[in-house]
């Protein structure tokens, strides 16, 4: 009598590798990621206050610094409407994303069928929703409370402010990949934001800078954010320069988001 036992095909089947996420962008997964980020933000009132109130307070402070010279406020207030949201969104987004990495949340998410594009798009969508509120508050306060006088449409001013906030979100997502701690994330601000702030044309016209500095400013996205605000400040109609400026700002935001998705990786194996 044969004592041979039958082989089991199920026991010898190799365990499938863990899911690494789909390469196709999924609206459902993107919206789920955005909803999760927004829920986390609602439990952090200090972050919400930083995002929504700091630009408003800074614009108000600037208005009363130039209380005796309202034309000076008009000339730089519009530019700062784009700069303040960019800076605050960069700071908060970089720290919040880094916190996801260091807490292990990103590790668990990347082990699920969630693509890198879904994750980055979800973060951008969530912080973009906050950016809309931030831009609405800052622009509405400046125009209808603080008396900022612009020649063009207020909606164009709001559009540029929103694109600047989205650019700050994209930059924050990107640089968070290169920081090992929240302190390092904050240290990226002088390296990424301050050079743009100095060369964007806020303090001196870019065509009056040294040729080397002007050439550098021509490749920095904040320069076109300020130029776009100035177009709204001085022109009643949509100009070709304005369209160029917003296209460049939006294109830079999309490019940086793509780079952020490319650099998104698991810290452990």
UniProtKB/TrEMBL annotation:
Topology within the bilayer: Multi-pass membrane protein
UniProt region (Disordered), positions on chain: 1-25
Subcellular location: Cell membrane
Keywords per UniProt: Antibiotic resistance, Cell membrane, Membrane, Transmembrane, Transmembrane helix, Transport
Domain (ABC transmembrane type-2): residue spans on this chain: 42-267
Family named by the database record: Belongs to the ABC-2 integral membrane protein family.
Amino acid composition bias (Low complexity), ranges on this chain: 1-13
Listed PROSITE patterns: ABC_TM2 (PS51012)
Keyword set includes Cytoplasm: no
Membrane-spanning parts: 48-66, 78-98, 119-143, 155-178, 185-205, 246-264
Source species, domain of life: Bacteria
Protein name (Swiss-Prot/TrEMBL): Transport permease protein
